[in-house]
């Protein structure tokens, strides 16, 4: 039975516990060890359920479709719980993580292609040029972690353009679209795109002195 625990506020104790069975059935939400809500099945969870807590606040749970994945959203009084998938700080880390992953992959494979002269890697354009590309993404990832919107936009644009070129080259070589590569690119681009909303939310919190801004 999968279980997730979250605090109500950044840095606070993990007071909310969520658990469910396979297929998102028998979903239970508890606060301080006491059950506060139950959702019987995935359909009901996708529709979203709101529970009233003893202090007058509300906890909502909803399973949202995000392209090729689902995201469990858990807002408390309309605010994502710290550490939950829709928490702006988590989304920003996810966007930066994808950028760092792209950087590392290009650096490693670029070096391998250049040193081993592998026909396969070289045919994909993986050589010292890829190492330079990866170094750029390392810098962009660092700047994104520091909430730079221009750096995020550059990373998104470069990765999208690189994807179009790479998929085009692979399609020419194989004679058909590389579906797996397309799906992976869309997934990564979606995670990077989420960074824009995350940075905006975090900066708004910072401007209003909200505790969530430092999460």
Which regions contain 5 or more consecutive residues with pLDDT less than 50? Answer: none
Q: Provide the β-strand percentage band.
A: 15-25%
* Shape category: elongated
Give the distance, in angstroms, between the N- and C-terminal Cα atoms. Answer: 28 Å
Order of helices and strands: EEEEHEEEEEHHHHH
Major pleated sheet:
4 strands, antiparallel
Instruction: Briefly note the structural class of the backbone.
Output: alpha+beta
Radius of gyration: 21 Å
Domains counted in the coordinates: how many? 2
Number of helices: 6
Strand elements, count: 9
Largest sheet, spatial ordering of strands: 1-2-3-4
Give helix % range.
40-55%
Mean pLDDT: 87
Strand and helix layout:
Elements: E1 3-7, E2 14-21, E3 25-31, E4 34-39, H1 42-47, E5 49-52, E6 58-66, E7 69-73, E8 75-76, E9 79-80, H2 88-116, H3 119-123, H4 128-145, H5 149-174, H6 179-208
Antiparallel strand pairs: 1-2, 2-3, 3-4, 5-6, 6-7, 8-9
Helix pairs in contact: 2-4, 2-6, 4-5, 5-6
Task: Explain how this protein is built.
This protein folds into 2 domains: 3-86, Beta Barrel (Lipocalin); 89-202. The chain is α+β, with helices and mostly antiparallel strands. It has helices at 42-47, 88-116, 119-123, 128-145, 149-174, 179-208, and strands spanning 3-7, 14-21, 25-31, 34-39, 49-52, 58-66, 69-73, 75-76, 79-80. The strands form 3 sheets. Strands 1-2-3-4 form a 4-stranded antiparallel beta sheet. Strands 5-6-7 form a 3-stranded antiparallel beta sheet. It starts with a strand and ends in a 7-residue tail after the last helix.
């Amino acid at each position: 039975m999968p279980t997730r625990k979250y605090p109500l506020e950044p840095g606070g104790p993990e007071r909310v516990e969520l658990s469910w069975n396979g297929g998102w059935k028998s979903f239970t939400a508890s606060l301080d060890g006491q059950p506060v809500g139950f959702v019987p099945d995935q359909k009901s969870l996708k529709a979203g359920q709101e529970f009233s807590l003893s202090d007058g606040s509300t906890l909502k749970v909803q399973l949202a479709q995000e392209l090729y994945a689902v995201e469990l959203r858990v807002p408390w009084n309309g605010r994502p719980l710290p550490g939950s998938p829709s928490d702006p700080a988590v989304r920003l880390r996810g966007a930066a993580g994808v950028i760092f992953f792209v950087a590392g992959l290009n650096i490693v494979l670029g070096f391998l292609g250049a040193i081993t002269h592998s026909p396969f890697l070289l045919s994909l354009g993986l050589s010292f040029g890829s190492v330079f590309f990866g170094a750029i993404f390392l810098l962009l990832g660092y700047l994104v972690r520091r909430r730079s919107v221009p750096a995020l936009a550059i990373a998104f644009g470069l990765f999208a353009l690189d994807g179009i070129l790479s998929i085009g080259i692979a399609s020419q070589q194989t004679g058909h679209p590389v579906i797996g590569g397309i799906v992976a690119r869309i997934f990564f681009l979606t995670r990077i795109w989420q960074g824009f909303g995350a940075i905006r939310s975090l900066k708004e919190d910072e401007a209003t002195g909200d505790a969530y801004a430092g999460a």
